[in-house]
Design a protein that fits this description.
Blueprint (H helix, E strand, L loop, with lengths): L18 H8 L5 E5 L5 H14 L8 E5 L2 H14 L9 E4 H12 L10 E2 L2 H14 L9 H13 L21 H17 L2 E2 L1 H12 L6 H8 L2 E4 L7 H11 L5 E5 L14 H4 L1 H4 L4 E5 L7 H11 L20 E6 L2 H16 L8 E5 L5 H11 L3 E3 L9 H14 L4 H7 L9 H14 L3 H8 L7 H20 L5 H11 L2 H7 L5 H15 L5 H13 L9 E5 H4 L4 E6 L10 H23 L2 E10 L1 E4 L2 E4 L4 H5 L5 E3 L1 H9 L5 H8 L5 E2 L4 E2 L6 E3 L2 E4 L11 E4 L3 E9 L2 E6 L3 E6 L3 E5 L1
Parallel strand pairs: 1-7, 1-8, 2-3, 2-6, 4-5, 6-7, 9-14, 9-17, 10-12, 10-13, 11-12, 13-14
Antiparallel strand pairs: 15-16, 18-19, 20-21, 21-26, 22-23, 22-26, 23-24, 24-25
Amino acid sequence: MPHEQSVTPSAPYLQGLNPPQRQAVETLDGPVLILAGAGTGKTRALTARVAHLLQTGTATPGQILAVTFTNKAANELRHRVSGLLGGIDVAGWWIGTFHSLAARMLRRHAELVGLRSNFTIIDDDDQLRLLKQVLELQGVDSKTINPKLILGIIDKWKNMGLTPDRVPNFNAGELPQPLTGPQLMAIYRNFQERLVTLNACDFGDLLLHLVTIFRDPANGVLAQYHARYTHILVDEYQDTNTIQYQWLHLLSQARHNLCCVGDDDQSIYSWRGADVSNILNFEKDFPEATIIRLEQNYRSTKPILAAANGLIAHNKGRLGKNLWTEEHSDDLVQITVTMDQSDEARFVAEQIESVQRKNVSLDEIAVLVRASSQMRAFEERFNTFGISYRVIGGPRFYERQEIRDALGYFRLINQHNDDLAFERIVNVPKRGLGAKTISDLQIAARRLQRPLFPAVEYLIQTDELKTGPRLTLTKFVGDIHRWLGLVATMSLRDWAAKVLEESGYVAMWRDDKSIEAAGRLDNLKELVSAMSNFDSLGAFLEHVALVMENQERKEEPRVTLMTLHAAKGLEYAHVFLPGWEEGLFPNQRSMDDSGLAGLEEERRLAYVGITRAKHKATITYALRRQTYGEYTDTVPSRFIEELPGDTVSDERQKMKNVWAQGGLGAAVSTQRWGGGTPNWGQKKWSPQPKTPLVIDADIVVVNPSSAFRVGQRVFHEKFGYGKVTDIDDDKLDVSFEKAGTKKVLDRFVNIVEK
């Protein structure tokens, strides 16, 4: 039976709610899914719902469990609930993050999993140290296998709710070589046993232990919580992983009063375990559920929302909703094409200056990139223009670990007396030089009254060092001198690539299987590309020093520069979305790894980017992009083609006219396409047909339209020869002779005929 509602329609927390928001607040019984689109006031509805539960007498504070993902969101929820209830203290209420609430619960029942209530929650560094101890006890050399890779697998299992006795069989290809399956399982089991011995757990254990406890009816713990909590509320439900899903559903299975707020169109965190199927299957889990859609947007203009709606409609895996607003505007979403990433950064900087002249604060402007490697061009251009900026969600480009390491090599080669550079890179990657050896070198350098590198040059000619370190340092010193001798004989770009390869630094990240490794490699490629613009190593290092010195003053407004992933939940008056090119966005790695699911998540990421804009959204892409100093022609992102034509102002037509008149870029166009102009169509362009090439006596034919068929032999510049195995519109599945099966766009392969 529905609860009696004793509040009046004029209750302060109900004022100003639109009808769907009001329904979300007042539907108190049974499972409820609130599909809250971007900017639709979901936090207001969520906090008003808590107030309504209390004001109607439906629940007491101790009977409500409200779960969020971040401390910031939890604090905001507590603050707003307190405000709606007249400023009462809510400090002891069950409002918090998954981890904080789970830790609070687990301390009450720790003995059931072998812990004491004062257990320690260890951080990433302690996890790594503990795992290395476990590896050593099992006779596994942590130098031959990356311990972080094993921790990543263990963390994945914990997020999936898998204790050591519940991990299913897995393929040999999933194993970090040279480990066997039994070895890996033993490592996980021993790691967990060691944690219990230390009266400790990691963050993954908090929920895993609780679910383990809840699943045992004999202890009666779950029944206690069923009696305690009458209503459970969850924010950002689309971002939950498997163990969070299990925990929530176990807690709510008695009463089914589970209210989940989320947006399937903003599920963008699968790489850290989020499972969009949790929200998509809500009605399957709770057939009696009430589904409420919050679709009135209070943030963006009509053209922005129409563009976002049209784009996300191409996703098949969604529950569906259509954002609308009363905010009128004639400003369409702008699409602008630039020559390359440098031209793109210049265009954005000029547009920001133009917006500034209209008295718009820099705090209201954001540049949202798909990959952190894109940031360098914008940071340098902003410094040139004198535009203050902040980087959210990570350090600035030249402050990133991999960039500082690479610069450490370049600085030491350029100036042998740079002790800070020497200390940074002498054992990166690992060269077997322990802390004791480094300390001995520093003591010897002070005794000799020399900088470290000259001191080492002297020491390797004496008997002061042990044989192992002496041989290692002899090679290191030789490499530094050899690279210095090469710098004047090669292009700076090629020289930098050679140093990073021969030092083993690139290989270190190539062998690293962590989520961050691929991005670090992309950043190194961007660094090398940037060096192609300088005539000497000294000039480049001086440029970096000047860029780094240009620190922002905290009190002044600044443009926000961040990745699209970091932008979720934020909003800005003007948003720039650069790099909308196939392979970059949507990201090729994501599509290769996850297929259609990866593409749909990339599209959701594009949707998130567009809906961050309140008044103006500008999308840009470059005709070519430089990697390792070499320019590669690009193709506009398919997402641009998917935007409804009446929602965008497409500058590509203007570029077509410029080309036709021999203006900007005409010379480059002639050089790149062998004469003529790009073949611009209504929605997409492609280069003019080229003369067929002859490769190894095979004729590679530029594709006539509709020429592909299953079994057709083709050639790809990167992957080589292969055969078409499946065709889906303009996407081909190709079995390459050396690269295996890949999904590629038909425009990137050519037909092969004998």
